[in-house]
Design goal:
Strand content of chain A: under 5%
Structural class of chain A: mainly alpha
Number of strands of chain B: 38
Number of helices of chain B: 22
Shape of chain B: globular
Radius of gyration of chain A: 17 Å
Distance between the termini of chain B: 53 Å
Largest interface: A-B, 12 and 14 residues
Strand content of chain B: 15-25%
Oligomer: heterodimer
Number of helices of chain A: 4
Structural class of chain B: alpha+beta
Largest sheet of chain A: none
Shape of chain A: elongated
Radius of gyration of chain B: 28 Å
Number of strands of chain A: 0
């Protein structure tokens, strides 16, 4: 298995990880709506995952850039820019005092990201298989 | 409620005035005072007596067994009849409780063609003077609103001395009556009229009690008839929201809120609604049907049992079935822990700025003098005082000891408590030490020279200290917290004022320290009050975050110097009122509503803990909250019920639930929706939304949103309610909404929202916190100041009338009303401006200020002397009345403003003129221009 194969194998696993993170976020938000968790605990919990998620996604995108996978890089670049912008503006963390006002926006964002990671997951899988086949 | 009356007298509850009236059945004499003092009798004109005499007796006196005899509508009918007769005769009934019934106005009144034909318009001519027949003196003193800004003039053709007299009535409705806004000023004296009446269907409730529906000072809806679906709300553009003031002050003479003491609390099993006057009893009274979700519940066994006397009782005497505002004493199931003691922690800034401005001395003296007023009936109240400069100075106040021991902690990054006990002490036990500490506090730090203030670290330490109990932290600071945790930088930048970036100064800075701290406080049931005394920049926007999320309040005294008596007096008064006011601790508030209705957004000072639960560590008195409502499923029921429940611990150690129930009819008729809209509630909601918008987006966006909302309302009104399509020279709006453009203009020109590059961010931020917390009664003058002419006030103004001091009639807020020789008051509840014309006669100056001529009069903050002449006494009486009549602890400053002022006086004059909102000011439009702009936008927009 060559470099490309390894890269996309890693990407598939990464996408799966990010996918689960998003599912976790969405479950937590629905818990909040049903009053199973209070907003302070929710924000404390989720804020632990926000930066790792951004960093992990950034790392993956950088890997694509360094290995010259232009299409994969371009797919991920907009989300990376979006994330970087949020971190620069310091709006990436969830704010317990405003969470109910912004809940629908957060949920929407999570669903879009979920869909994105899902598409990415299958794309990486396809590329991985392609790489494995072309090697043989 | 059993009143001892002489034979022949009967007592009636007058819902219009919210007080008892007493009638001598032999002579027809009606009085507000109990007949034991016969001198105070007041003979009402005949028109008013019949409805009064037929009005149902209130309280436990009523409600015998059950059944149909309770449904007597004669009262409302009679009112309607007499009210109508009175108005069509052009006769203004000035008697107490002689309401001109709205909604039954003669057909001729349905369309009022422009205010120019208003016979009362003559009254507004600059000539001023006493208008004959001015209806003020006879008006009853309502507990809310009216007294604040002059009595309502009886306006026959407006027909709208709205009252809730007929609310149990024959199901008559309020329909929109169009008035034209173009071509004349609106009558500002009508701003304080009651909201449109609530016309519930006749069988909505079994009780005839006049307080079966919440008074608008507790809870008012923007629409007193709820549209049956969300699409109707979207179509007619009127917002649907509740303005709730659960802890409004109860005035002297007002009946206290009834308390259910037997801990029999009947609640719906499914939706947890508390039993209220709008439920129905089934199966011979053994079960009750919830008015919200329709579930049938069992009536508790002890519901018909008087536990005090151990005898059967009549359930229809129970307060919760007669009163819309009741308090239940909660049993232990409603407690997480035993009721906490009230805890007061004072963090006093003793840095150079604090000591030099005299803040420390004034604060210490005020606390000392207020020690007896702090709620401490059961002797459990705990107190702690921490002085803060570059270090934290704790005081160990051992019980019994007379001298405090000071303990200094200078580790600001990890503040610790220097001793495990004696820092937070029982007020009664350590009284001696506390008194000694307070009297010596300012001397102790007299030599303080450092500019550092470690307030952030002090807050952390205070949280550590009182988190086992919860309670109140009162921060008094004259300098920016600039060392230790939560240190702030001066971010004021005059260059960005007036630009879109300005809103960044109105948002909380400080890298999240204050927000996180507020969340920790909310968890620990701690509420923070901020008293800010900035000589320079104080960063109100950041510091007010603490009160905002912990349901406290911010008080701001810009450039405070205790050397100026007025400053010291204002602060001492407000601080002492705050200390003395009873607080509700460890509270949660929930608003429930009939099926199909959802609370969508909350505005005010609290922390939203779950989708419908507001956490309020301490509910201050007279703070208002706005709740926006969405209708998720179309409403099929004839009326809907909104119930607010506040579970709290009183400062006397009792767990209680305050329940406020409001029932509103539903409708799908546009005329009724418009006709039942409450302009004051709408303005209160818009103020909240505008402030939120200016913090989250730009100030300009907030102003645009205000204008667009008004245009939307007027445009849809035009399309639905008037026949005129296309361009029209008129701008019509329902009579009950005619002040809305004026109030919106007031908001647009308000110091918190106005376009200007000169307003310091601190002043804006403080205005924001007032705009979002003041109850409507104080908010309306705050956005639409009151303007009175004093030199030509009617002879009875300033004297004691039937309902206290009589105020002069309010004038429209325009400088056209200013005469060169006149003396005027412009006041918004926070400041009172005494405007002296340039040609004021020396006698006037002598009479009021005791000075030979206006040249010797200094403008600025002043205390008006009380002189031995009737004019001075009347002016003082008017000012005192203005100060007393508003809810809240605020004490307005009096400023003397001279028309011919120069230099510093000119800026004061310009400040006073900025309150005349009907004039052009800087880039702000005049009222006439504004209304024309609205009309043009309405004409050019397409509405359906």
């Amino acid at each position: 298995m060559g470099g490309e194969g390894w890269l996309f194998l890693f990407a598939v696993l990464a996408a799966a990880g990010l996918l689960f993170t998003m599912v976790f976020f969405i479950i937590m938000f629905s818990d909040l709506e049903c009053d199973y968790i209070n907003p302070i605990d929710l924000c404390n919990k989720l804020n632990n995952f926000v930066l790792p998620e951004v960093a992990f996604h950034g790392f993956l995108t950088t890997l694509f850039l360094l290995s010259g996978q232009w299409i994969a890089f371009l797919i991920n670049a907009p989300l990376l820019a979006f994330n970087v912008n949020k971190v620069m503006n310091k709006t990436h963390l969830y704010d317990a005092t405003e969470i109910f006002r912004t809940l629908s926006a957060h949920k929407k964002e999570c669903f879009i990201k979920l869909g994105f990671y899902l598409v990415c997951f299958f794309y990486y899988l396809y590329r991985m298989i392609l790489a494995l086949i072309s090697e043989e | 409620m059993a009143q001892q009356l002489p034979p022949g007298w009967t007592a009636q509850w007058d819902p219009n005035a919210n007080r008892w009236s007493f009638t001598d059945t032999t002579t027809g004499q009606v009085t507000w005072d109990p007949p034991v003092s016969p001198a105070a009798g007041f003979v009402a004109p005949g028109a008013s007596s019949p409805p009064l005499q037929q009005s149902p007796p209130p309280g436990s006196a009523l409600a015998p067994a059950a059944g149909s005899r309770r449904r007597q509508y004669a009262a409302a009918q009679a009112t309607a009849y007499y009210g109508d007769a009175a108005s069509s005769n052009g006769y203004v009934a000035p008697a107490p409780g002689a309401p001109v019934a709205p909604g039954v106005a003669a057909p001729a009144q349905l369309f009022t063609p422009g205010l120019a034909e208003d016979p009362n318009a003559a009254y507004f001519s600059p000539a001023g003077g006493a208008a004959p027949g001015y209806a003020q003196p006879g008006q009853p003193q309502p507990p809310y609103g009216q007294s604040a800004y002059g009595a309502p003039t009886g306006q026959p053709q407006m027909g709208a001395l709205a009252n809730q007299f007929g609310q149990m009535g024959l199901g008559q409705k309020s329909f929109a009556q169009s008035v034209n806004l173009i071509g004349g000023p609106v009558n500002v004296n009508e701003l304080q009229r009651d909201p449109p009446p609530i016309h519930l269907p006749p069988n909505a409730t079994f009780t005839q009690h006049p307080k079966a529906n919440a008074h608008h000072s507790f809870k008012r809806s923007t629409l007193n008839a709820v549209p049956t679906s969300q699409s109707l709300i979207n179509k007619y553009k009127l917002p649907l929201a509740l303005i709730i003031t659960p802890y409004r002050s109860i005035e002297e003479g007002e009946e206290p809120i009834p308390v259910v003491t037997d801990t029999v609390i009947a609640r719906c099993r499914r939706c947890r609604t508390y039993i209220n006057p709008y439920v129905t009893f089934l199966e011979g009274g053994t079960r009750w049907k919830c008015c919200m979700c329709g579930l049938t519940n069992e009536v508790p066994q002890l519901f018909d049992w008087d536990q005090a006397t151990n005898s059967p009782a009549n359930r229809f005497d129970r307060p919760e079935l007669n009163h819309s505002v009741v308090e239940f004493v909660a049993p232990s199931e409603y407690m997480v822990r035993p009721p906490q003691p009230p805890v007061y922690t004072f963090l006093i800034d003793v840095s150079y700025a604090g000591v030099q401005s005299g803040m420390v001395a004034t604060a210490a003296r005020t606390i000392l003098e207020s020690l007896d007023r702090i709620p401490n009936e059961d002797g459990r109240t705990k107190v702690c005082i921490i002085a803060v400069d570059y270090a934290l100075h704790f005081f160990s106040l051992a019980p019994g000891a007379t001298d405090p021991t000071m303990l200094v902690v200078s580790d600001l990054d990890d503040p610790f408590l220097p001793t495990p006990s004696d820092l937070l002490v029982n007020l009664s036990e350590a009284r001696g030490a506390i008194e000694n500490l307070l009297s010596g506090l300012s001397d102790m730090f007299q030599s303080s020279t450092g500019p550092e203030s470690a307030m952030g670290s002090a807050l952390k330490a205070a949280l550590q200290l009182i988190s086992p109990f919860g309670g109140k932290i009162m921060v008094l600071t004259a300098s920016l917290p600039n060392v230790g945790q939560g240190a702030l930088k001066n971010r004021e930048d005059p260059k960005i004022l007036g630009t879109p970036k300005e809103s960044s100064l109105l948002q909380a800075g400080g890298s999240g320290f204050y927000k996180n701290y507020a969340i920790d406080c909310s968890r620990a049931q701690i509420s923070v009050d901020m008293f800010l005394f900035g000589q320079g920049y104080q960063d109100v926007a950041t510091l007010m975050v603490l009160p905002k999320y912990t349901s406290g309040q911010t008080y701001f005294y810009p450039s405070f110097t205790a050397a100026r008596t007025e400053d010291a007096l204002k602060f001492a008064h407000e601080f002492s009122e705050v200390l003395a006011s009873p607080i509700a601790l460890e509270a949660v508030m929930r608003v429930r509503a009939s099926r199909g209705i959802r609370m969508s957004e909350y505005h005010g000072n609290f922390f939203v803990r779950s989708t419908d639960l507001l956490a309020m560590p301490a509910v201050p008195i007279d703070q208002s909250y706005a709740v926006e409502i969405q209708i998720e499923d179309p409403l099929t029921q004839p009326f809907v019920v909104f119930q607010t429940a506040v579970l709290h611990t009183t400062c006397y150690g009792e767990r209680r639930i305050r329940v406020i129930t409001l029932a509103l009819p539903t409708t799908s008729s546009p005329s009724e929706i418009y006709g039942s809209a409450d302009e004051v509630a709408i303005a209160t909601l818009l103020a909240n939304k505008a402030v939120e918008r200016s913090q989250s987006a730009k100030l300009e966006d907030a102003r645009d949103a205000l204008v667009n909302k008004t245009v939307d309302i007027l445009g849809t009104y035009k399309a639905t309610m008037t026949s005129g399509g296309g361009a029209s020279p008129q701008l019509n709006v329902a009579d009950n909404l005619k002040h809305l453009p004026l109030l919106v203009l007031g908001l647009l020109k308000h110091v918190g929202i106005r376009q200007s590059a000169q307003i310091p961010p601190d002043l804006r931020a403080y205005a924001h916190c007032l705009l979002t917390t003041l109850p409507s009664q104080a908010l309306i003058p705050y956005i639409h100041p009151n303007f009175y002419g004093l030199h030509n006030m009617p002879s009875e103004a300033g004297t004691v009338g039937e309902r206290g001091i009589i105020l002069p009639p309010a004038l429209n807020l325009t400088s056209e009303r200013l005469e060169r020789h006149g003396l005027y008051i412009i006041e918004d509840g926070q400041n009172i401006f005494l405007w002296l014309g340039r040609d004021a006669v020396p006698q006037l100056v002598l009479d009021v200020f005791n000075l030979p001529s206006s040249a010797e009069l200094k403008s600025g903050k002043t205390s008006l002397p009380l002189l031995e002449n009737s004019f001075s006494q009347r002016v003082n009486a008017v000012i005192n009345k203005i100060r007393e009549s508003r809810r809240g602890p605020y004490r307005a400053h009096v400023y003397v403003v001279k028309e011919d002022g120069i230099g510093a006086d000119a800026s004061l004059r310009s400040w006073a003129l900025s309150m005349l909102i009907e004039d052009r000011f800087e880039v702000g439009m005049s009222y006439v221009q504004f209304v024309q702009m609205l009309r043009d936008k309405v004409n050019s927009g397409s509405y359906s």
